[in-house]
Amino acid sequence: MSKRRHSENNPAGDASKPAGTPAESAGNGDGGYNAGIAVFSYIIGGIMVWSLIGWGLDYLWGTRWIVLAGALLGAAGGFYLSHMHGLTSSRKPTGGNGAASGPSEDGTSNAK
Asked: Helix axis angle, 66-84 relative to 31-61, nearest 10°?
């Protein structure tokens, strides 16, 4: 008899993975698309917001270059946010046999 727990939030019954994890959403085929839309939104939103701030400062100070600096700052900030949220990295390791690539628990490296 199996001791797996089945819950409403986790129909697969795997108690080690909470429902709604990135691995689960990537498993249904739309995880990469959703991450791409989120990255696009962060970058475009950052450009729009910081360009408007730069435009306002240009208007107040009588300059013409702050809007461009704001757009660049917004793009960099949007990419930074998407990177910090883990949206720019691949969720599946490419190639290999799935073995761990970091140091082992005893501190020695398992690199070949």
From this structure: 150
* C-alpha to C-alpha distance for 2 and 10, rounded to whole angstroms: 16
Q: What is the pLDDT of residues 20-68, one digit of tens each?
A: 545 444 456 677 889 899 999 999 999 999 999 999 999 999 999 999 9
The model's pTM is 0.55
Q: Is 103 helix (H, G, I), strand (E, B) or coil?
A: strand
Where in the chain does DSSP place strands (E)? none
**What is the residue extent of each domain of the chain?**
32-84
By C-alpha distance, which of 93, 99, 48 is closest to 75? 48
Tokens representing 52 are 């408007």
